């Protein structure tokens, strides 16, 4: 066995927990995880119910009967796609409105995945609505489409605004495609994504002025006004109001900046009554540091230390314009915050034993969890993949000495695309490595944080090693 392989085994597998080292079971995790699972089911059921409701109103409004002939069938199908698109559009906005109960139950990764699916579906239905309605008003004649489209745009109230709104939504969806996101800076992508709110706002007048299903009955009218009002209120309260209240109440300021090496800096922050901020180890905030250019563009950074009630710490690698400028922050700089967000915390935990697996700067929230979680000696294992030198090496050694955290270091670049391992473990495949180093991994909660492809490979290996899906908790450094 070569020396690199030996370091893997000794670091990650030695001194695994035994029956005699477990801490007393005075706290049983899982209650919040079960509650969140019930909320996820309720939220999904609510969305499907809303789609059934608007479809029902289309049916009772003689939507099916109108399908008897070609041109009225096109128009009726266009109305149905418009209704479904509107419903999903509002659901899309609610998903990113930072509603606490949704944030807690789903977590950011899952919310963003659902948000993208709902967004793409909504846009496809909206474009279908536009095409079908125009074709129907053109009496099914392709040659009449240009003139009919011009007539609808210029003579029907709200249609021109709706087209402008559709253009904004197309821009938002196009820049959400993975290939487009790779070509954009986070700050540019975030600014472009704000056009989604403008698109939704521009679509409203057309729907209320010319959408007959919106005013077909008092119940339908009440429904649409209610969901529009709830959506607008959610954005104003949780995306605008609450962050301003938190920032004014807690008065966060930069206390100091420390160089961690490998291009990573830690920013220490103080403020008032931080114990009432509601932050947990592993969560993140959106930060705006007010003494520099570009402060209006917030950036999401995870806590790298468990919140103490008196201070917070984030650790950031210089990858973009905003992250590079953190090194020059001065003590006393005021900070606006949104959050805390994310479910990579004790909230997701279902049992006593945990594994924390991080790569590169993805170790930051796991470092906070290693400090903030409750566990006994041997009940928590941390595996850190890195190139160069490991982050927080001294702090993790201290946690190993004082808390019984087992720390495994996995140095080097990935040995191959699709693998989460580095060189030196060539005698083990990705799944065998987990089972060898952590024989009881199927009985543990697995927290993973790092780049997208790497976390996906860890998740695949963990599932193949027998870890149930509800015990794998992910947070990717992506957008």
UniProtKB/TrEMBL annotation:
Record has Oxidoreductase as a keyword: yes
Transmembrane regions listed in the UniProt entry: 37-59, 79-97, 117-138, 158-180, 192-210, 222-242
Cofactor field: FAD
Keywords (A to Z) from UniProt: 2Fe-2S, FAD, Flavoprotein, Iron, Iron-sulfur, Membrane, Metal-binding, Oxidoreductase, Transmembrane, Transmembrane helix
Biased composition (Low complexity): 1-14
Compartments where located: Membrane
Membrane topology listed for this record: Multi-pass membrane protein
UniProt superkingdom: Bacteria
Organism for this UniProt entry: Kribbella ginsengisoli
Region of interest (Disordered), ranges: 1-27
Protein name from the UniProt record: Ferric reductase-like transmembrane domain-containing protein
Entries under InterPro entries matching the protein: FAD-bd_FR_type (IPR017927), Fe3_Rdtase_TM_dom (IPR013130), FNR_nucleotide-bd (IPR039261), MRET (IPR050415), Riboflavin_synthase-like_b-brl (IPR017938)
Occurrences of domain FAD-binding FR-type (ranges): 247-347
